[in-house]
Amino acid sequence: MTQSRLASLTLQGFFAFGLALLSSFAASAQQVSPSLPLLFDARERLARPDLSSLVRLRFLTSVDFPPFNFTDQNGKLSGFDVDLAREICSELEISDKCQIQAIPFADLKDALAASQGDAVIAGLAVTPELRRQFVFSRPYLMLPARFVRNLAVPLDGKTAAALAKHPVGVVRGTVHEAMLAAFFPAIQAQAFDTKDALLAALKERKVDAAFADALQLSFWVSSPASAKCCALFDGPYLSEQFLGEGMTIMLRQKDSVLTAAIDHALATLSRNGRLQEIYLRYFPYGLY
């Protein structure tokens, strides 16, 4: 089985840009407040299982999926998932028993199966095959699809309906191409072979808008590469059919108590705002 990421990211250039942004994240987060949709019912209270017999909790991640997990300029393991793992341990009052280890992404599944770790937090896409072998926490983040528009193009409206008579670019053969066709059949889709070709065409006004992964688009419109040509437009758009179940934590099937404990922690962090704080730390311009 080939493991896959939840989102298909082109990391060349994005990683360097992401590191450059980290120094300005705190200031940016104070200027804007992009909201993180709650994935847990605010009225829901999940019981916290007894973890007194737990010897340790070993989170496994990787270092090639910024801004979720990467090695920073000081060689320190960092990222959204890394900070979230630490917050989960803090909420469960087991920080002294927690470890976070980075290994190659391709080795995560086998390492968990061999009990070389207890939980994988690395943007691993949930598949039926993985569900036959492992269990997953409740999702803590969804990666939506978004439109991005060229600001030089006049649009008659502020919703996707305004794009009906405009050429909209999409990367060929992706879930976003299929999702665009299913959600917006009236839009004139123009396919490109790569994300870079798509964004270049948008910047040069060869298309008036594009439809793609919100994570990539959010960083691109805020980067020097876009030259302030464009902005996110309408949305976000979520679809489990096209985009999957969202960001989750994978555990062994026998660890039902630990899974329930992690669900409790995620629900609490969502309700008390600490999940939102981590989100703003790494996504100051917002995905939604």
List the main descriptive attributes of the protein structure presented here.
alpha/beta; D-Maltodextrin-Binding Protein, domain 2; 288 residues; five-stranded mixed beta sheet
Give a description of the structure.
It is a single chain. Residues 8-33 have low confidence and may be disordered. It is built from 11 helices and 13 strands. It has 2 domains: 57-142 and 246-283, Periplasmic binding protein-like II (D-Maltodextrin-Binding Protein, domain 2, 3-Layer(aba) Sandwich); 145-242, Periplasmic binding protein-like II (D-Maltodextrin-Binding Protein, domain 2, 3-Layer(aba) Sandwich). The chain is of the alpha/beta class and 288 residues long. The strands form 3 sheets. It has a 5-stranded mixed β-sheet with strand order 5-1-6-13-7.
